[in-house]
Every structure is written in C-alpha cells, then in structure tokens.
From TrEMBL:
GO biological process: inositol catabolic process; L-ascorbic acid biosynthetic process
Protein name: Inositol oxygenase
EC number per UniProt: 1.13.99.1
Cofactor comment: Binds 2 iron ions per subunit.
Source taxonomy: Eukaryota, Viridiplantae, Streptophyta, Embryophyta, Tracheophyta
Molecular function in Gene Ontology: inositol oxygenase activity; metal ion binding
Pathway membership, UniProt: Polyol metabolism; myo-inositol degradation into D-glucuronate; D-glucuronate from myo-inositol: step 1/1
Length: 305
C-alpha cells in the first residue's frame, strides 16, 4: 500500500509558548485547535516545578527513571519484549486494557489513558480531516502502556512512561530533572558519556537506543505486525515522548534526512498530544465505529504483543 502524505505547512521549530501575560487564544495551531491556558490542575503545561498535587509523584518518578535507564537495561528489555510473545489481541482490546492506568510521569492529567487517547485523536481529526493515518496515530500512540498490566510483566512506571532520551551517549542537560542522571552508571562511563557515545553523526534515530518504555514498545508492535501506517506515523509513535528533541532541539546530530522530514509531523502531533489534555470526556461509543474502520485499514485483526 502506498500512502501519500500532504506535508504540513509549518517550520521545524521548537514548541511555541504563549508570552507571559498574553492571551492563549492567540496561539492557534495549524488547523484551528486553540491551546488552553492551563492543564487539568489549573497550572501551566509541563511545569515540573509548580506546586501541584502531582509534583512530588512526578519528581520521584524521574529520579528512579534516570538512575535505572542504562544502556544495558534498555538492550535487555528491547530484546525480551521484542519477541512479541506475551499475547495476541486487537488494537481496541488493548485500548480497553488502559482504562485502569494513570501516568505517574504526567504533571498535566490524572485521568485514565483512554480519555487522553480519544482527546488527542479527536483534536487532530478536526484539524486534519484528510489525514486519517494521523487520527489513528493519535489514538494508538500510548498503547505501549499496557506494559503496566500484569499480563505484560507489570513493569514499574519508570520503565514504561515519561520523557524518553537516548542511552549510549551523554545525557543532554535539557532532560527534565537532569540532576538525577548523575547516579546512573552510564553517566560516568567513558564509553557512554561523550556527545556521540557509541553512535556517529547522522547515524539515524533507527540506530539509536532510546530509554525503554511504551513508545519504543508500541513502535516494535506496529512495525513487526506489518502495520501500513506511513513512516511518519511510526516515527511519531516511537518519539512522541522524546521532548529533548522535539521541544529543545537536542540530539539532532544523531538524525538523518528521513528523521528530519518526519520531525515536521511530530511537531504537528505533539501540540495535540500535549494541549488536548482536559477533563472533558469523549463519547466513546459515538466515535468507536470511525476508529475501528481505521484500525481495520492499517492493522491486522489480531496483533502479536
């Protein structure tokens, strides 16, 4: 199947912000989606220093995450879960499994994951009605969080969610709560603590090990089950939590030309992934038939997980 993707009309730039004292309604995204002025707790989005009920939980999450995510750990997890031998199920079955989970790394929302998936997908659908692959990408981008489920090993949250980053090279200081990397064994390893580490300039992100979690796992599931999503969709799934790259422009020395093209779509997607979070519920039964049609278009009925 050949899929033609109309290129988004935007420059590849870090995420825009509303100026202090400005009107957030003035920051209109590509198709008309308006950025809200606050998250579900009435705070600025992705503010890890704000005194909210989530602050302590989120910081403790990143402390453990940054200490434990080593090159050896990621290699072991990717090899094990890459066998996709846990179960077989359809995409919507997986969505329903996420109902009971809340992401401890997210300072902006404490609702079950299915709400976030539908909010993201529906916001994209309104602004990009002709890009159905992008609607589906919004719906499934977080499905790798089933790693939290007992049937998938019930991994701890620090091994499933949160911002992602390359392992095998120096940790960039723009990573949230960077200070905790100092207790990671790789931080002191001459093999891993240089700019390029075990990689080379322009090697391509496909050749880079990312911290283990739901992003990389769902990417493996989609790829190995031969999804017909375009490469931009797979790129979004694997790197949507790679905030050091798509928000701060870090690690671009590892990207190749295809990565740079796909990054344009990731910038589009990220705005909806982040700013569509709210306490407004989506009518699941009303939108389910549409998304089932997309699932059937781009995925087999049953997938190996």
């Amino acid at each position: 199947m050949t899929i033609t993707i109309e290129q988004p009309q935007l420059d590849v730039v870090p995420e825009s912000k509303v100026p202090a004292g400005g009107d957030p309604a003035e920051l209109v995204l590509d198709g008309g989606f308006v950025v809200p002025d606050a998250n579900a707790f009435g705070k600025t989005f992705r503010d890890y220093e704000a005194d909210s009920e989530r602050k302590e939980t989120v910081e403790d999450f990143y402390r453990v995450n940054h200490i434990q995510q080593t090159h050896e750990f990621v290699s072991r997890m990717r090899a094990g879960y890459g066998r996709l031998d846990k179960t077989e199920m359809g995409i919507w079955e997986c969505i329903e499994l996420l109902n009971e989970f809340v992401d401890d790394s997210d300072p902006d929302l404490d609702m079950p994951q299915i709400e976030h998936l539908l909010q993201t997908a529906e916001a994209i659908r309104k602004d990009y009605p002709d890009q159905d692959w992008l609607h589906l990408t919004g719906l499934i981008h977080d499905l790798g969080k089933v790693l939290l489920h007992p049937s998938f090993g019930e991994l701890p949250q620090w091994a499933v969610v949160g911002d992602t980053f390359p392992v095998g090279c120096a940790y960039d200081e723009c990573n949230v709560h960077f200070k905790y990397f100092e207790k990671n064994p790789d931080y002191h390893s001459p093999k891993f603590n240089t700019k390029f580490g075990v990689y080379s300039e322009g090697c391509g992100l496909d050749n880079v090990l990312m911290s283990w979690g739901h992003d990389d796992y769902m990417y493996l599931v989609a790829k190995e089950n031969k999804s017909t999503l375009p490469s931009a969709g797979l790129f979004i799934i694997r790197y949507h939590s790679f905030y050091p790259l798509h928000k701060h422009g870090a690690y671009m020395h590892l990207m190749n030309d295809e990565d740079k093209e796909n990054l344009k779509w990731l910038h589009v997607f990220n705005k909806y992934d982040l700013y569509s979070k709210s306490n407004v519920r989506i009518d699941v039964e009303k939108v389910k038939p549409y998304y089932m049609s997309l699932i059937n278009k781009y995925f087999p009925e049953k997938l190996r997980w």
